[in-house]
Amino acid sequence: MKVSYKWLNEFIDLADLNPQDVGERMSRTGIEVDGVEALGDGLKKIVVGHVLTCEPHPDSDHLSVTTVNVGEDEPYQIVCGAPNVAAGQNVVVALPNSRIAGNVKIKKSKMRGVVSQGMICSLEEIGYANSVVPKEYADGIMVLPEDAVPGTDIVEYLQMDDPIIELDITPNRADAFSMRGVAWELAAVYNRQANIETTDTSKYEGKDLADALELKVADTELVPEYNAYLVKNVKVGPSPLWLQLRLMASGIRPINNVVDATNYVLMANGQPLHAFDYDKLANKVIETRLAKEGETLVTLDEVERKLLDTDIVITDGEKPIALAGVMGGLDTEIDENTTNVLIEAAVFEPIHIRKTARRNGLHSESSMRNERGINHATVAESGAYAAELMHELAGGEIVEGRERVSVIDLTPVQVSSTLTYVNKRLGMDLSYADIEQIFAQLQFDIEGDGENFTVFVPSRRWDITIEADLVEEIARIYGYDKLPSRLPSVNAVNMGYTDWQLFKRRTNDQMLANGFNQVIGYSLTGDNQTVLEMENAKPVALDFPMSDDRRVMRTNLLSTLLEIVQYNVARKTADVAIFESGRVFKWADAALPVDETHLAAAWTGHAASKTWSHPAKVVDFYDMKGALEAVLDSFNLDVAISFEPASDLPDMHPGRTALVYAEAKGQEPVQLGFIGQLHPSIADKYDLKDTLVFEISLEKVYALPKVDVKQSPIAKFPGSERDIAILVADTVTNAEITAAIEKASKGGILVATEIFDVYQGEHIEDGKKSMAYTLKYLNPQATLTDEEVTADVARITEALINDFQAEIR
Fold this sequence. Notes:
InterPro entries: aa-tRNA-synth_II/BPL/LPL, B3/B4_tRNA-bd, DNA-bd_dom_put_sf, Fdx_antiC-bd, Fdx_antiC-bd_sf, NA-bd_OB-fold, Phe-tRNA-ligase_IIc_bsu, Phe-tRNA-ligase_IIc_bsu_bact. The protein is α+β, with helices and mostly antiparallel strands. The model has no long low-confidence stretch (mean pLDDT 92).
């Protein structure tokens, strides 16, 4: 919110204070100030000018040659390109050697051979934003009022020396979203009296608008208060300059005297208003309700909006004519032909307003206040204030009466606390007199006996409802800088890592040792950006996302990892190996979502770079499998890890994908996750070549039984090795053969089984493959005998023949 310092001084006397100091003081008491700056800072030698003559340029079809009275003895000749320049106008003139916005220097020059002694400026060229320039001057120069005196400094004339305090209002302090609110705040901070003038509403009370209007409120929970005022015979035209300047300083574009009156009240009181062209109401009915399915509304920005049943709408008894609290409809717009105006001053349920504004992208000064809350005590008064302004500015005749529906209770909220509670939270030793003084500055009534007290919170501070809120008010008005600084007293505790933290750190360390780089992906993703699901998880959607691309919480890690791989590959990083250990989110049967910690990795490019002696090796399934096995082995799990082929996982290559299982003795296998190569169509979607991925649940791994590792002395006795080669069907996996070998071996003397050759091709029949293994034997207690090893190899051979119809080679 932008606050005009000169306007603010009408609500509270701050003439003796430096605006910069006021901004700093506000920041230290709870309302952040982004900056304090006058729009005219840096402008030099810019004055009011009166155009005496205006002739077409002899060598241009869009330039004009003017003579301009700038308050000096002789007029200046200035070439101007504005399409709306004309003789008899008062305009903004930058003299030779002047400085306009952006520190641009204007010099005497020639334009198409004609001397130009300066420049006739638009409002943008002297520093105003295009969004606040009146539409009639948006593509040209501004025409100043007839009473403007040539030669007057434009900074003074347009009040551009007025310091503008830009506030960053947080949702909990929406009470400061108005000139009144800021004045109340500064009155408390500086212990001064705010000058808040109110509008007399007595002439409207007890009277209605008779047959002029019928007001219907379908649901008072959605619309707890609605006031309608009628002003007749207005003359729509431009607002006076003082009003336009105040609105532009506040960041609002002037429209006309009727609409500007509602915006002026909005900034002054913080109450959103809307003006309808009364004669465009077909049935002379105002009805508030929820939109019906299939209804549409063309809003003031000329966009047709499809309405949902969560949108509160204002109707004429039949069709919608406005999105309540957000934007009016085009059909009832105030225009130059309007003569009778109906003023709306209402309170709408904030959540519905917020949803409507976000869905339609209609964030305005009005919708922000309706979303965050308004002062219920000044709703009716603000409508009456706008009617008085329309009488003053547009010559309207006020109908002394109103239509009103209200169920709002304006009884002050009572919040009780104790001196002990306050001092304990603040670490202070405040007295009851100190507390009384602070609430006197806030102009809150207080009752108490020295220890216990009750504060009566007025409706203008709807953010104060609990005991802790009182403590916050006391602290910020007393001064955060006055609170003592000391370290809290704490008992010594074991500050080491928990088992779970050590487990996660070990996981990360092992992945780093494997050569992967750790990344941290975004936890939010889009509805249609999820791939590589471990299971059919229901995503958790945000009620109010920042954008559609970040609407849901991620249900897996690989979706974001692939985006990171794509980003790097697109920037010529061909070899990418990354991992993340983080949380994923999903809905379960519980009332709240659940989260789980996963480990995921993605690898594309080469597993080994090209050297003088070896060619580069493209990463394959077994490289990624080795990395995952290294991680699982580091946990010393007392389980059997197995990889079972899977051909039905979405987004994965059907022939190069496996499910990862862990099986403890006497228990059912637990699926930890999956590993494999991306399906070619998914790889193409991300502009990737062959890419390997895996994702497992770390929490499932953490829950598995583990082996206590004990160091054993090096065996004193020699071991023995035997090689065995078999011919089996090509559907038999190495894991199945290894498991069969370990099961068949007896006596505990087989310590390792290693595959050293796999062959298919010439001299091997179709559908078969040759596999060769080295069996390593060792007895740490005695020297092995040839008979023991031979007998064990015979048992293994027999098992392989029986289980796989293997042919011993």
